[in-house]
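sanity check both lines:
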Amino acid sequence: MRTRGRLALLTTAGLMAGSMVLAGCGDQEAAPAKKPVCTTTPTPTVAIPASYIHVNVLNASDTQGLAGQVGTALSWRGFQVISTASDPQDDNRPTPTYAEIRYGAGGYQMALTLATQVEHATLYNDGRTNPSIDLVLGPSFQLAALPPPAAKSVTVNVYNTTARPGLATTVGKELRARGFKTDRVGNDPLGSFNPELIAIVRYGAKGEPAARRVALSVKGAKLVLDGRTDSSVDLVLDYRFSGLVPAAQATAPPVPKPSRTCS
């Protein structure tokens, strides 16, 4: 009996203490959520050609081959890529969410120039004495989209997949009137058949900006990245194609504002 009474007393005391703790918690105000601090990466104040900037591309993400892909893309954009590798983390730097650009004495303007090509990049002066720049790729890394080139800089192949004879020739003529250059014009050499589509714009990674320029002239065109290594673009006309959009409407969207980084 003594044991039962003692247990009952302990249980009652425990419940009372628990109620007091819970009541105390209910009286406390929740800590306000921490607001992210956002900054805009400054724009360069000195014009430095991309060909003067030597870049090491370092992968700090789990995406295999990302450094090689980004290094190739930067080479297409005119930068001198020295090497591509995994981030050695010599300075024990935290992994960036998007990207970190490391530079040394005299490299600030070059770092800012490289930052114009990268979404949400942060800059870090690591004290190096050589003029090289490191671009460290985080798990959410993205290159900034290039504005599409002028039509006069784009060469396009125009292919017909429909039963309408002469369609590729007609559209090729219309594209040339808009300033495009055409190369091959005729039936699709791949023999594709897409009765539910309007048009396909086929391109390789190097030709992505040119592909977007072509797609502006065809409302509803589907962009398809294939394995080609050059900058050529195919416009494949499918069964639901009814014509190019008016030239005045085939315009690129405004240039994006400077990248913002939040932490």
User: Anything to note?
Assistant: Confidence is low (pLDDT under 50) at residues 1-28. The chain has two domains: 38-137, 151-249. DSSP finds five helices and twelve strands in the chain. The longest helix spans residues 2-27.
